Amino acid sequence: MQCAGLGAGNNFLMQPKGSVQFSIVIPTLNEEHSLPLCLESLRKQQRNDFEVLIIDGGSIDATTEVANRFGLKTILVKKRRPHDVSSARNEGIRRSRGSYIFFLDADMVIDPNCLNILEEEFNNCEIIGVCLRVQPYNGHLFERSMYEFNNALCWLSTKTRIYQLSYFSSHCYRKEYVKAVGGFREDLNSCEDMDMSLRISRMGKYAFSFRSTLWASPRRVRQWSYSIYVLKYLKFLLQYYILSKVDDFYEDLGEHVSSIVDEKRVSQEF
Question: Which of 59, 70, 191, 194 allows an S-S link to 240, with CB 3.0 to 4.6 Å?
Answer without folding.
Answer: 191
